Amino acid sequence: MDIKLKKINDFTQELTCSIPWEEIQDSFKDEFNKVKSNHTPKGGRKGKVFGRDLELFKKNYNSAIEANFAEKSLNIYYQKALQEKKLNPINQAQVSSLDFSEGNQLVFSLSFEIIPEIKLPNYQKKFKIKMTKYKQTDEDVNHALEELRQQHSNLKTVDDGAKTDHFIMGDFQELDENDIAIIGKKLEKQYIKLGVGAFTGSTEKELLGAKPDDKRKVTVNYGEGKKSRYELHIHKVEEQLLPDLDDELAKIVSPDLKTLGDLKTQLMENIQKSIDDDYEKRKREELINYFVSKTKFEAPKSMVDRYLEKFIEEQMKKNENLDKEKLKEESKDIADFNVKWFIIKDSLVEKSEVSVSNKDVDNEIKKMIDEGADEKKKILDFFSDEQNRQSLSSNLLNEKLFDHIGSFATVKDTEKSTADLRKQK
User: Fold this and answer.
1) pTM of the prediction?
2) How does 273-309 read in b/e, with b if 16+ C-beta sit within 10 Å?
3) Fewer CB atoms inside 10 A, N or C side of the chain?
4) How far is CA 79 from CA 56, 85, 96, 305, in A?
5) For the chain, which residues score pLDDT lower than 70?
């Protein structure tokens, strides 16, 4: 068998095979005789095909036998060629030509995609990435304390009229330009807060002093020129009572805390951990960006298509009203990027020789059990599933890989306060 390979692009190969008649003639004869043995000539017996009957049989069936034999042989010799050339296609091959007739060689050409060979950047000679490092401020703790006060607040019914920051619960009946109710446009038992969002300015003024059972007509401005007119039937007016910033708040948040100072210390630690975790996440993203931008190759189309298909399927499950074609178009660059990183990551794992053993997985499971002894049985049951164990192994491999490539990165940090981060949001 003569095998020729032609590179179409980074990920597509065209394979042409020529198999001489001498190599396949016995197989063809077997195929011919197999079909002949099931043929019954006119006025004769099954399988008894001689003389003129044989000539007639060849005339009528030889082309079909040749076509069937060629197709079977293509699959056989395609697999042999892949093994000989050590190729591993990632999609179904597309046949571009197939030529065979009795007494002649079998020749076929087909194309398929493979994982492209890539040249990684020489990262072990050090490379630079730029990062923004955020520092927490007293304002972060104040924000966190205010959130806790909100979470542990109580509501008190108000009978003497709504004021700014009061909550109103009522039914919103949408009105037309003539202040007539629009059938089917009623929102029942909706909560709003005066002085917040759309309920500020003139809208807030129309509701100040409102009491239970009142009916008020209001114009709500949603921004961007969108306004709606409603008749609001008020059921309840409530005031939010926030707990004081004192030691009692700390005890409400957690029995382990004794003073407000303890609560602030815990919040500072939690905020710092969140900042550190975010920094590490962004650092990984920068490492990935470095390798994808520095490794020049085309992502295999079949892999990008499969990624897109799966991604769109997941997004449509979350929101079936999405425009599928628009989402597909907008997600192409993301799919291309992620497929490239998938290929690069595999190459990095091979080059760096990082690996995860069964012992590594066992040690990580033991660590989880030590940190949550009460959940021991649940943890062991979860990781008795081989798929969950493989997922943990994959996560550990990622950790080791990022530790490896991160050790060669020179990080240039620009320090900013978390106040700057809040402004961005």
Assistant:
1) 0.79
2) eebeeebeeebeeebbebbbeebeeebbebbbeebbe
3) C
4) 35, 10, 17, 25
5) 373, 425
